[in-house]
Amino acid sequence: MLAKTTDGSTYIYIKDLSLVDEVRAIVQQVPGIEMIYTSADIIKWHIDPEATLLLKRKTVFSLQMKLVVVEPTDEKELGQSDRYKAVHDSDRIK
Fold first, then answer.
1. Which pLDDT value is given to residue 13?
2. Is 12 exposed, middle or buried (0-12, 13-18, 19+ CB in 10 A)?
3. pTM (2 d.p.)
4. Quick check: 41 and 4 in contact, CB under 8 A?
5. In angstroms, how far is CA 3 from the centroid of its own chain?
6. Pick from 9, 15, 20, 66: CA 20 to 30 A from residue 48's CA?
7. How many angstroms separate the most distant Cα atoms in the chain?
8. Average of pLDDT values for 4-24?
């Protein structure tokens, strides 16, 4: 999953689409979110067809998405962007 924030909106990109409902449920709890748009809305508006969700913030809030993503990584991916060997106790992260 990747989040990019621009001009008061945050685009969420989810590779594993089986996680969309779970991510949406988590994001709905974030204070300051006015609306969560789906990929169908995003495509209809010709914005970014690769985005899974689009978050619109309330006017008085600033969105700063800080999420922890833990996923299996193949050894040959190590060293690529955002692919590192864990050096912390990852068993505590759920």
1. 93
2. buried
3. 0.62
4. no
5. 4
6. 66
7. 44
8. 88
